[in-house]
Amino acid sequence: MFVGVCSDTGKIRVINQDSYYICELDELPVFIVADGMGGHKAGEVASSIATETIKEMIYMNQEELLSENFQIPKFINEALSEANKRVYEKSSISEEYKGMGTTVTMAFIFKGELYIGHIGDSRAYLLRDNELLQLTQDHSLVAELVRNGSITEKDAINHPQKNVITRALGTDEEVKIDIFSREVLDGDVILLCSDGLTNMVSDEMIKEILLKSENIQDTCNLLIDTANDLGGLDNITAIIIEVR
Q1: 20 to 30 A from 198, CA-CA: which of 53, 134, 206, 211?
Q2: Structural domain tally of the chain?
Q3: Do 197 and 171 form a contact (C-beta atoms < 8 A)?
Q4: Could you give the CA distance from residue 32 to residue 51 in angstroms, rounded to a whole number?
Q5: Are 235 and 227 within 8 A, CB to CB?
Q6: Over pLDDT 90: what percentage of the chain?
Q7: What is the value of pTM for the model shown?
């Protein structure tokens, strides 16, 4: 397995409110991208709390994680629920952080299966047989409008409410998490990214970059450079995993 990662502030933002985490436990690698939202530094705090909470729970349960009876979907739900609780509590007791939240897209790869936990509008993609498939579903107003047929994909590109999130971690006491799995094959490429990439770079262009580049880290860097060349309006984070 080969892994590349890159995170960049972009051309407009002053600080980077994205967080990421890579844990390569024996036989159970875990990858996380979180895109924080809120006032000055609040988004940075929310995404950091989320990734640190999941990291803490991974190491607290390391023995169980590597056992035969480990249930990954159950752990994803528990980890993201705990992260939601901590972000929400922090925002409730501090006026500075009131209303903050974060997206989280996390991936486990275990025994030929990819397990995804997801909330918000960061994304997970799978590149296989020269085709790029978006695995996650955006929890955003515009994505819902596209899904119910109110607007087209083309309309969504420059929609004025494009950044309105309908589900995020830490904004409410309870959180609804998308959890699913699918088989992974040798040669598959998995991309986790924040919307700072996908709002700037089309799926077709992402696919072309993933297909052309031979080095995973160089590919990450090229994705971020492309997003910045096209405006860099937001923080940009990408993790690429090549399954071997």
Answers
A1: 53
A2: 1
A3: no
A4: 7
A5: no
A6: 76
A7: 0.94
